[in-house]
């Protein structure tokens, strides 16, 4: 009984399209093929769509244009990134003169939120007569601006949101060129450098933890007996794992010069690349924060150093800390009384 012919699927048709007869000199499978990947493109290029949109809302509060949880996790991505922010926070907190409404502890948290998130919120705690007793720091990571003008929401998690009493929350925000609902931190242009700095450190840690430190080719061209080759092979295998920093002794009687060569393939290049990435990303982060390197304990690479640290501190205070003080003095205008007050600083170079 004859069977009907079966229709070939797409894979079989593609294979058959090459022809049933293969030439004897057909070496296409062994030929060298070359191709290029094209120009590099940023992975986050679609994020520029946020520049053309407003902050979306869920009929109750607006969502920030960037992930506040991501900014919080990136705070400790690079030691220079977090150290620069902590330096500004400490200097601002030290220059504060505590009042009956604002404590130095609440102000330090307010400053840190402003520098990390680009937003800072204070909550009025009132007595039964409606007078302000004190100002509490409200975490910017979980505070949202409401759709209704003057309203704010506390959103710590799913289905745990609570609306604040009207008129009790005051917001300080770093200006953004795309929207006026939330502020954005000034260091966003250097955030990729801070993350690259972290990636380089993590890659280096994994390199040392996995125990594979050979990083070279043992190229032997002399006349060796099989037992000698096996001995060298076993010695190389034992160089992996705990105690891998070992030296290997090879004795070759009547061996010729250059019979054994060690060709490094990874260690030197990886070391230079690691140091270059660390130094370049550090400079990017410090440029974004505008912090002199000598104030962060960075050791200069040249003999000349970074100059007088006292003069650098005075310039930094005048160019960075004083403008930040003016930002927090805006709270007095919103509250109607002097809750934030700064002391007079004596120049360190005098």
From TrEMBL:
Pfam families: Phage_portal. Residues 1-20 are annotated as: Disordered. Belongs to the phage portal family. PBSX subfamily. This is Phage portal protein. It comes from Sphingobium limneticum.
């Amino acid at each position: 009984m004859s069977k009907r012919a079966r229709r070939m699927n797409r894979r079989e048709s593609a294979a058959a399209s090459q022809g049933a007869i293969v030439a004897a000199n057909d070496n296409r499978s062994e030929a060298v093929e070359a191709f290029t990947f094209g120009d590099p493109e940023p992975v986050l290029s679609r994020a520029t769509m946020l520049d053309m949109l407003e902050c979306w809302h869920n009929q109750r509060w607006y969502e920030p244009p960037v992930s506040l949880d991501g900014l919080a996790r990136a705070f400790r991505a690079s030691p220079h990134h977090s150290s620069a922010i902590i330096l500004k926070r400490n200097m601002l907190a030290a220059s504060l003169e505590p009042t009956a409404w604002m404590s130095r502890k609440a102000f330090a948290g307010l400053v840190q939120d402003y520098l990390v998130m680009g937003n800072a919120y204070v909550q009025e705690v009132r007595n039964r007569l409606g007078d302000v007793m004190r100002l509490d720091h409200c975490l910017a990571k979980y505070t949202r601006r409401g759709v209704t003008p003057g309203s704010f929401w506390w959103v710590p998690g799913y289905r745990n949101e609570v609306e604040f009493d009207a008129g009790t929350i005051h917001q300080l925000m770093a200006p953004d060129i795309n929207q006026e609902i939330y502020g954005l931190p000034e260091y966003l242009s250097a955030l990729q450098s801070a993350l690259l700095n972290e990636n380089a450190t993590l890659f280096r840690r994994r390199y040392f933890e996995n125990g594979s430190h050979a990083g070279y080719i043992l190229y032997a061209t002399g006349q060796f007996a099989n037992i000698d080759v096996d001995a060298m092979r076993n010695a190389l295998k034992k160089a992996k794992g705990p105690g891998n920093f070992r030296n290997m002794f090879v004795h070759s009687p009547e061996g010729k010069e250059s019979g054994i060569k060690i060709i490094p393939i990874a260690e030197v290049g990886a070391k230079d690349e690691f140091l270059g990435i660390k130094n370049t990303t550090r400079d990017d982060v410090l440029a974004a924060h505008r912090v002199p390197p000598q104030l962060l304990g960075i050791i200069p690479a040249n003999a000349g150093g970074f100059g007088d640290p006292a003069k650098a501190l005075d310039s930094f205070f005048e160019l960075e800390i004083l403008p930040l003080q003016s930002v927090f003095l805006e709270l007095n205008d919103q509250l109607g009384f002097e809750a934030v007050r700064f002391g007079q600083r004596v120049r360190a170079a005098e």
